[in-house]
Design a protein that fits this description.
Structural class: alpha+beta
Shape: globular
Oligomer: single chain
Helix content: 25-40%
């Protein structure tokens, strides 16, 4: 089941229309409503109270018809918020229809090609080209040039980006001599805080939780050293709390951190195998990919894992995405099996348009996990209300282990509908993300807006969760 979900997620491609803004607010809302009512897998479950939903829909339509395009975003957000699904996401595709709290960026007067050439010869350790692409991940979202202005402020400007929000020469951030920064997020909302430049190789924005790596660092840091420092910046870590207990801190399962987590486990294998107790702190982990925690399972599981399957809502968006993927596949024998598999998926979706499709023969699967010969005898996972998506999936799987307990508070509750992808709903000035499948746990075992219950509830009187966990395991 997990491999099928991952495959769909990786090969799904949607081409967003590049066009000028054409939709008035009322039209935009109507098209958004139609898209969600026909292609959101959770629509029927989330609108069981039809009277309530229809009344709400009439209300937002009346508001939209009285609203200018420039103020429409708030109406669209109000509508999508009705479904209380963290996998539904809408935002302006450009800064033209930006929300009121968005701050305008300025353009930097620079010739990008000349800057590229100059950066190769500069002796300045900070000025040059920086990327938020790490060698162990995929393509960069931003390629940033850092130059110093007349006031002595280091200005980071966009050289290239695959984000629809950003154009070349726009200011991405400013680094002030006193250690403060101004940083514009992906949708151009400004954050402020403190930054650190490590060995002229990494610039880390603490409050924005963002890091950029210099393309040609002047330091002698290896990629492995850079990776470990980035891991530490983002809160990943492994350490001994006592002679008996080890702590793993995993604040995210996002794709860029998969290699970091794998390295963390590999580099601390001896401690994992010799520690009597293990605490896994995933507080604040909003998810990512199930691949992130696979290497951890042999140390925490006592048995195989029973996973409930999923079913995809067959839509033209899914079909077009898979067709686009097939067109880009190289024609060789090694990819023949993949080509045939994707072809079967397309046929299934086309034959069942508008219906739910289970790509497996069963409603559940057994994931075989071979426990490590040496592993902790007791495992405790710490969760809180910010734990969601893939982190909730990890928690649900781990709870099947006979040697594991979960402590903390109820998780966020965002696991019923997932594998979110971008959907074109006819108004290209907005980006819409929707989930594409629903779990076969439904309707008997819902998680959305309920969350996963911990085995041990930590109320507000527990000030230090790590100390509680240590005492619990060692008492």
């Amino acid at each position: 089941m997990m491999k099928v979900i991952l495959s769909i997620a990786l090969i799904f491609i949607t081409n967003l229309v590049d066009a000028q803004s054409t939709c008035e607010c009322g039209v935009t809302l109507d098209r958004l409503i139609k898209k969600i009512e026909t292609e959101y897998p959770g629509f029927e479950e989330k609108t069981k109270d039809k009277i309530l939903y229809e009344s709400f829909k009439v209300q937002v339509k009346e508001e939209a018809n009285k609203t200018e395009k420039s103020s429409c975003f708030a109406i669209l957000k109000k509508y999508t918020a009705f479904f209380r699904d963290g996998h539904i996401w809408i935002n302006p595709a450009t800064a033209i229809n930006k929300p009121k709290e968005t701050v305008s960026t300025t353009m930097v007067d620079v010739d990008i090609e000349k800057f590229r050439k100059r950066s190769k010869a500069t002796a300045d350790p900070v000025e040059g080209i920086w990327k938020n692409k790490f060698e162990w991940t995929g393509g960069a979202l931003y390629e940033i040039g850092i130059t110093k202005n007349k006031a002595g402020v280091l200005v980071g400007f966009v050289m290239s980006s695959n984000s629809a929000f950003w154009k070349p020469k726009e200011t991405k951030f400013r680094l002030y001599p006193d250690g403060k920064f101004e940083f514009y997020t992906f949708d151009k909302k400004m954050k402020t805080g403190t930054y650190e430049i490590y060995n002229h190789s990494i610039v880390y924005f603490k409050e924005a939780r963002a890091a950029f790596i210099k393309e040609s660092p002047t330091s002698n840091l290896t990629q492995e050293q850079i990776k470990r420092k980035v891991a530490a910046y983002f809160g990943f870590g492994a350490k001994k709390l006592s002679d008996k207990t080890m702590l793993l801190t995993l604040p995210s399962f996002d794709y860029p951190f998969v290699a970091i987590i794998e390295d963390l486990l590999t580099n601390n294998r001896s401690q994992l195998e010799t520690s009597k107790n293990l605490i896994i702190d995933i507080r604040g982990n909003s998810g990512g990919t199930d691949n992130a925690y696979q290497l951890l399972l042999p140390y925490i599981m006592t048995n195989s894992i029973r996973n409930m399957g999923v079913e995809y809502l067959a839509t033209q968006t899914l079909v077009e995405g898979l067709e686009g993927y097939l067109k880009n596949l190289p024609e060789d024998k090694e990819r023949q099996g993949e080509t045939e598999r994707v072809g079967r998926w397309i046929s299934l979706f086309e034959e069942n348009m508008g219906k739910f499709v289970n790509l497996k023969d069963s409603t559940f699967s057994l994931q075989k996990v071979v426990p490590s010969e040496k592993s902790p005898a007791q495992v405790l996972i710490l969760i809180d209300k910010r734990v969601g998506s893939a982190a909730e999936s990890f928690t649900m799987m781990a709870k099947q282990s006979k040697k594991l307990k979960v402590a903390g508070t109820v998780s966020s509750g965002g696991l019923d509908y997932a594998a979110a992808r971008m959907f074109n709903f006819g108004c290209p000035e907005y980006l819409l993300q929707l989930p594409t499948y629903r779990s076969l746990r439904l309707p008997d075992y819902p998680i959305d807006n309920i969350g996963i219950q911990p085995d041990i509830f930590l109320d507000k009187s527990v000030q230090d969760w790590l100390q509680f966990a240590l005492a619990y395991l060692e008492q």
